[in-house]
# Entry
Amino acid sequence: MKKSSMAKKIIFIVLYFNFGLYSLLAQEENINKLKDTLKLESLDPLRPAKAAFYSAVFPGLGQVYNKKYWKVPIVYGAIGVSLYYYSDSQKDIMFIEMSIKKDLKDIKANLNI
# Structure
């Protein structure tokens, strides 16, 4: 029993190392150097900085500079929605403040009776 178990372990170890070495050697032999067939587009290093500057001056202008015109309505939509919710919440805050002041006046008036 022990001999067959030991033999199986030895065979496993030998096969394991054999396959491991084979895969290492196969990788070394099959290294192919491919030529880059795609031409790289020359990038203007100032282009992102210029777009950021334009966007800081006038929102959405950086997207126009990068020729992504479809993003401009998204920018102005986001600005418009933000302004709408800001003004709407300011109206609610003013209404709540006025109601609290009115309630405090009523409480003071009732206490002075």
